[in-house]
Every structure is written in C-alpha cells, then in structure tokens.
Amino acid sequence: MSEQIFGIHGAALELRSARMGVLASNIANAATPGFKARDIDFNAALDARLQAQNPTGFNGAITAGSPHLLYRQSALPSLDGNTVELGREQVAFAQNALAYSATLSFVQGKVNTITRALKGE
Fold first, then answer.
1. 8-state DSSP, 72
2. Beta strands 69-71 and 38-40: pairing type?
3. Which range of residues forms the domain containing residue 33?
4. In total, how many domains does the chain have?
5. Distances (CA, A) of 49 to 16, 64, 80
6. Element (H or E) spanning 70, and its range?
7. Which 8-state DSSP code applies to residue 19?
C-alpha cells in the first residue's frame, strides 16, 4: 500500500538511508589500515526494488552479500591498503543527505495531504 501512496519515494528513502550508513562507515574507517571503501549502486538497487518480479529476490535490504553494495575504486590508493578518500566520501555523504532530505520532504507533503483529506479540510 505504501508504494501506491508514496510511489518511488518510499523505496528511495529506504535506500538513501542505507547508503548514508555505508558512507558513514567509510568516513569512520578512513584511518583503518586495509579498509576497503564501499558504496551502493543506488540506481540499480532502486530499479531492482521497484521490479515486481525480481529474479534475484532483492527486497531493498542492503547486506554484505548484496549485488548493489560495491567496492569503490580509489584514485589514490594508500600504502596501508585503505581505499577511503575522505574528501570524496564527504561529498558523496553530503549529496546523499540532500537527496534524502528532498525525498523526505516529498513524503511528508504527501502525508500532510492525506491527513488534510481525512480531516475534510
């Protein structure tokens, strides 16, 4: 029912939230030797989430074995094997946070519209 009401935005909100966690983990591990930066292929994950007959059975959950959770290629690999580029991660986090906020505003507007309709305003 939420997909009928919110359309693509409900799934997008869940995936943006998951991506925020992955990016935060990358930032937190910027100084961890051997840590490999990861990211979510947002468009592919969203497409898979929206398909009704998905052969892989993807339900929107991003786990370690998810085909949409990919290792990020580093332009400047460090000597200790860490592939996190702090500036790049911070920019990706900020962009994702902005997109999350915009999606959340849309969902909130939809909820407010439904609430007003139920009240008869």
1. P
2. antiparallel
3. 2-119
4. 1
5. 13, 17, 36
6. strand 69-71
7. H
pLDDT in tens, the chain (121 residues): 466 677 788 889 999 999 999 999 999 999 999 999 999 999 988 888 888 434 444 445 565 556 678 998 888 878 999 999 999 999 999 999 999 999 999 989 888 988 999 998 7
Q: Which of 21, 10, 4 shows the shortest CA–CA distance to 60?
A: 10
Angle of CA points 67, 68, 72, to nearest 5°: 110
Packing angle of the helix pair 42-50, 8-28 (nearest 10 deg): 150
How many C-beta atoms lie closer than 10 Å to residue 23's C-beta?
25
